[in-house]
């Protein structure tokens, strides 16, 4: 068997576990910088601007840090609810 | 410092820190603020009744954000009654108000002031909710749930591949990580303990723990790569 896990099937609990264990290989910011940039990131996204290229490292961190991801989802939902 | 902000500390994954296009703190990085944001800053920076009124409006704004978060996460703390949730929202807004006023000179105008302020209240409420949800619960530092995931779903081939990869990860955790890295990884990634809850129990910060987690993940990926695994996970 080729040692290539693929992970191309539909998402499974095991895949989620592997994602949590290994995180992202891409460069990422830390929790503190994520909080610093969160408001700008959310507004860029909601404005249709390429937030990922404006603030590189945010998305990989949001994928790797559940707490920051919750903060992101909440801020985005709150700002979106007021539009 | 309010408890929510206090969880960050320093020590993010600086070795791989992505550089953003934004300059560091301070007025030098300030961009043109929208009119509403400028009014907020001027009123909060003034004195007397203008400032008092602005602070009252800011507290109301932060209460709205804190209640929004409490409503979103109420299921996670179902043991708390309505009055307790109101108290939690009020305390979150109070703590966020302290934080916002203390950091007012760091508002760079790169978002609306209200969006910038909201994140403080959301953070304070989220941290308090997570701590309530885990109050009195033991923090699992051992991989008690590991076997349950190994055969979860998919075709037989996918299950076999997943099982093989998980086995390699498990060995790498045992062989490559320090005891502290292992405990942090198992608690956060395997047992899904919230990072600020673990930081409080271990007497450290969210930033320091994430740095440990980041280093542990990098070691695991390097080991898997050296063994010939090419793990592709959609970002």
Polypeptide structure, described:
The complex is a heterodimer of chains A (about 80) and B (about 240). Chain A has helices spanning about 15-20, 30-45, 50-55, 60-65, 65-80. With about 80 residues, chain A is an all-alpha fold. In chain A, about 50% of the residues are buried. The model of chain A is unreliable at about 1-10 (pLDDT under 50). Chain B has two domains: about 5-10 and about 30-135, Rna Polymerase Sigma Factor, Chain: A; about 145-225, Winged helix-like DNA-binding domain superfamily/Winged helix DNA-binding domain (Arc Repressor Mutant, subunit A). Helices cover about 65% and strands about 0% of the residues of chain B. In chain B, about 40% of the residues are buried. Mean pLDDT of chain B is about 85; it is low at about 15-30. The chains are: A mainly alpha (about 80), B mainly alpha (about 240). The interface between A and B is large, with 57 and 73 residues.
